[in-house]
Each structure stands twice: as C-alpha cells, then as structure tokens.
Design brief:
By secondary structure, the protein is mostly helical. The chain has one domain (about 10-210). About 75% of the residues lie in helices and about 5% in strands. It contains 11 helices and 2 strands. The protein has helices at about 1-30, 40-55, 60-85, 90-115, 140-160, 160-170, 175-180, 185-210, 215-230, 235-255, 260-275, and strands spanning about 130, 135. It has a two-stranded antiparallel ribbon with strand order 1-2. β1 (about 130) and β2 form a beta hairpin. α5 runs antiparallel to α8 (about 185-210).
Amino acid sequence: MIEIFQQSLNGLAIGAVYVLIALGLTVVFGILGIAHFAHGSVAMFGGYLTFLVMEKFGIPFFAAMGIAMVGGAALGLVIERLAYHPVQDAPHINAFIIALGLTMMMEGMNLLMFGADQVVIQTPYRGVFYIAGIAVAELRLIVILTACVLVGAITLLIAKTKTGKSIRAVAQNRQAAILMGVNVSMVSLVVFAISSALGVAAGALIGALLAIAPGVGEGLAVKGFAVLILGGLGSIPGAIAGGLILGVSEAMAAGFISSAYKDVIAFLVMILVLLFRPEGLLGKR
C-alpha cells in the first residue's frame, strides 16, 4: 500500500506537467481548431531558455521561469501571426501541414540555439520529507503547487475577465462572436500567447524534475494529445483529469512492471477509455 501511495505521488508530479501541456493544446484546439504539434518544441524552448537565464544571470528558478514565459508568449504571437493566421480560412489540412513543418523548424531552432546536450535545471528544492513511510520530494510538491497556481490563474482568466468571455464566445460560435463585435484576430493572438506561456512553464518544470534534450518535445506533444483524447477534446476539466490519470498510470506501470512499458500501459488506459467513452472522460457527446 505504501508503494502504491509512493508511485501515485510520483505520478501526480509528472501528471501536473502533462496538465500544463494539455491545457496549452486544448485552448488552441478547442477555440481555433488547430492541432498545434509544435507545442512540445515550444515547451523545450522554454526549458532551455529558463536554464540559460539562470546560468547567465544567476536568477532564481521561478524568476527565470517567469521571464521565459514572457518570451514564450511572444513566440506564440509570432507563431500565430506568421504560421497559422494566413491559413485561418483555408481547409484544415493546410494548418495541419504547417503544424508538422513548424515542429521540425522549432526542433531545429532549439538545436541551433541551445545545442544537443541534455540539460537538467538545478533548483534549491532538494529536500525529502517522510510522511507515514512515504518519501515526499520537495521538488515534486513544488511542481504540483506551481501547476495548481497556473491552472487556477488560467481558469480565472477565462471565467471572470472580458478577454476570457471573448475567448469563450469564439469557442462556442465563431460567426456569432464576429457579429457581436468580438475581435477574433486578437482572440487568436491571446490564445496562442497563453498556450505558449503554459508550454514554457511545463518545459521549465520538466527540466527541473527530469531533464530536457532534443527530441523530448515531440514526446511531450504526443502525451499532450493523448491527454486531450483521454479527457475530451476542448475540455479544460478533461485536460486536468486526463493529465493526472496519465501521469499516475505511467508511474504505476514504471513502479510495478517496468519503466520500459510505462508508455504502453499509459496509452492502453487511453484506448480502453475511448472504447467505452469515445468522447473522452469529460467531453461532450
């Protein structure tokens, strides 16, 4: 039983990162209908940038992550305006092809800017607490709490602000929102800025929790879309639930079977959910 609780805690930490990745994807897909495959590479950019700022200027982890999130938001604006905006009224296959090309471009940019070395972001959160025989790493708690704060901030933004109302209006009915005077072009920019900032935060946290390296971003994007399918496409509560379920299932598979099979077990859980509830756990029929 102690081992079950231990692996669950470990899974919640990595699941919190998956939640941030999935939230960034779901706001883009649910509102604009774009499968933003380059989101994982944006996350890796954020992790590398956080590491670089800390190393060059000696800035603490969270301050460096905040700076990286601002840079990520600016990158999101550029991506939306140069890559996706020109094809917003074109067939969806156009945006799909651009997303794939953008993924390769972002991976190449990360490689040129930051090199091919694996990077681990060093933080001062190295303590370990023991509660009822369960080892609780301070860093894992920090990751979970940080994800909770960011999720809460995004939820308040979408639910309580004028910008959030515009985002929800476009998500519900784009044409009606245009007729009501909503600036859809501006909403698209804001959505990509939010999405990229969340991705950067996830990249910084994964760099502190595990490591960042070329190719990791593609895996994160795949996990993010798996979470979307598991929780329900376009559903923010579904993204949260799906991310935590995927993280815990991976940890359980790694702890009780083998780390080599953790991805297989995680996607098996997703497939089983889709067999019995194709719209996802919290998606609408």
